[in-house]
Amino acid sequence: MKCSKCGNSIPDNSLFCPKCGAKTDSGVQQSVPVGPAINSPLTGKEYVIEQKIAAMRETFGVKDRNGNLLAYVKKKLVRWGPQFDFETLGGAKFGEMRGKVLAVRPTFEIYDDQGLVAVVKKKVLKLLRSEWWLENANGTEIARIKGNITAHEFSIQSPSGAPVALIHKKWVSIRDAYGVEIQNEEIDPFVVIAYVIAMDNTQFKAEKGFAICFN
User: Fold this and answer.
1) What residue ranges of the chain are covered by domains with CATH 2.40.160.200?
2) pLDDT band per the 50, 70, 90 thresholds, residue 54
3) In the chain, N or C terminus with fewer CB closer than 10 Å?
4) What's the CATH number for 46-206?
5) How large is the average pLDDT for residues 22-27?
6) CA 186 to centroid of chain Cα atoms
7) Gap between the Cα atoms of 198 and 160, Å rounded
8) Is residue 13 scored above 80 in pLDDT?
9) Do residues 40 and 188 make contact, with C-beta atoms less than 8 angstroms apart?
10) Residue 48's pLDDT is what?
């Protein structure tokens, strides 16, 4: 984590910053709200993500539980990695996610129309074991994943273990689709869905030798 006073990188659970001496948040960090994206059509609690829209190979469809299409997530390949544009049905862009999968520790940066709001990071915790978690723009951990990403059966939890969202296939019969159930509105649905799509993209990297492990 980073010192809130001087910005110096310090070990997790440190009581004081070794550079400036400022007191830090020890132990489990508290969830920091990530506000709603302006003009986002994603304001509910239940969503279905279709991984491939017919005739639009690199486009995800975001629907409500009743099957009403709410938004598109369009994947593009750019020089530094994949980029995902979040668009309304009318084509207005309200968010973006930039994947830097060629980095030593791959990351996905999530932006709304005001700037950076969150970052998905790979954290190496122990030998041959790693986790991906979500940080806000200030570098504070706000969520991490527990479960089976390959089967789309996992939960997103706050650092204290409180539920943020459930990802599952209970609601859907379409093969390339899964449900997202928001359980804590402190993190905006746009950010949660971006986090989930980052993990969905990571799944395909894992099948090609891009290692990820979850508890």
Assistant:
1) 46-206
2) low
3) C
4) 2.40.160.200
5) 49
6) 14
7) 22
8) no
9) yes
10) 95
**pLDDT value, residue 31:** 43
- Residue 58, Cβ neighbours under 10 Å: how many? 13
Q: Which residues contact 194 (CB under 8 A, 6 or more apart)?
A: 84, 86, 95, 97, 108, 110, 118, 120
**Per-residue pLDDT, 173:** 83
**Amino acid letter at 194?**
A
Do 63 and 53 contact (CB within 8 A), yes or no? no
pTM of the prediction? 0.76
Dist CA 213 CA 28 (whole Å): 21
- Please name every residue paired with 49 in a beta bridge, in sequence order, or none if there are none: 62, 178
Average pLDDT, the chain: 78
AA identity, residue 9: S
The three-state DSSP-derived secondary structure of the chain is: CECCCCCCECCCCCCECCCCCCECCCCCCCCCCECCCCCCCCCCCEEEEECCECCECCEEEEEECCCCEEEEEEEEEECCEEEEEEEECCCCEEEEEEEECCCCCCEEEEEECCEEEEEEEEEEEECCEEEEEEEECCCCEEEEEEEECCCCEEEEECCCCCEEEEEECCCCCCCCEEEEEECCCCECHHHHHHHHHHHHHHHHHHCCCCCCCCC
How far apart are alpha carbons 96 and 86 in whole angstroms? 6
